[in-house]
Amino acid sequence: MSKLRILLADDHETVREGLKTILNAQADMEVIGEAPDGRSAVERTSLLHPDIVIMDVSMPVMNGLHATQAIKETCPTVKVLTLTRHAEEAYLQQLMRAGASGYVLKQSRSTEVLHAIRAVATGGTYLDAHLAKPTSTRGRTPPRTDQSRSALSQREEEVLRLVAWGYSNKEIAAQLNLSVKTIETHKANASHKLGVTNRIEVVSYAILQGWLRDS
Question: What CATH number corresponds to the domain at position 50?
């Protein structure tokens, strides 16, 4: 039986070493490469053509969202499994929309990761058992990523960036020399286009887009 060829992308060496020990101990898995950042993950995926990339979200150079998007564009048959400490639904929605086939929390047991790997390897999707039922299955449109970011007007993006930084509508209006009502309109339009409903989701979106200089 051929083994699943896996690439590990995480900026913490101890995490990679731990995962490598667990995965290489499985009869049907082998770790064929490692990447300490998102850009390296994209490059090594193109070079090694693994079956699955286990992808962290918060990494230097290029974060997991952008790396996932790049991998799915260049190597569409490669499966991406997100492994992260972020349990917020906004992260889940963005990574799944970017092309990830699964989403597992680092806080979960190693058996959860193994179940997820085997599930995505067979073409399925996998969500960590500790996560609530995803919003997308309840009929709401999940937040979009770069694919629809162009739908935002320049002013809408400017307003949303300031919202993410924690400014109130009144403070944003003063900075942009606009009325509070106009700011509320831009904010509502941008939120509708992206499918976000509260400031926590706006911040999560902003972090993954690099608006807050996330490393």
Answer: 3.40.50.2300
Place of tokens 């997820």: 116
Q: Which of 54, 55, 51 is nearest to 3 (CA)?
A: 51
Same domain flag for 85 and 165: no
The pLDDT assigned to 145 comes to 47
Whether residue 26 is contained in a domain is answered as yes
User: Phi and psi dihedrals of 31, rounded to 5?
Assistant: -90, 120
Domain that holds residue 96: 4-135
Whether 148 shows a pLDDT value over 80: the answer reads no
Cα(57)–Cα(135) distance, rounded to whole angstroms?
20
Residues 6 or more apart from 168 whose CB is under 8 A from it? none
Do residues 9 and 109 share a domain?
A: yes
Assess whether 52 and 107 both reside in one domain: yes
Amino acid at 182: T
Quickly state the pLDDT bin for 143 (edges 50, 70, 90). very low
The pLDDT confidence band at residue 213, using thresholds 50, 70 and 90, is low
Residue 13's contacts (CB-CB under 8 Å, 6 or more residues apart) are 36
- If one counts every other C-beta atom within 10 angstroms of the C-beta of residue 114, the result is 17
**Cα(99)–Cα(68) distance, integer angstroms:** 7
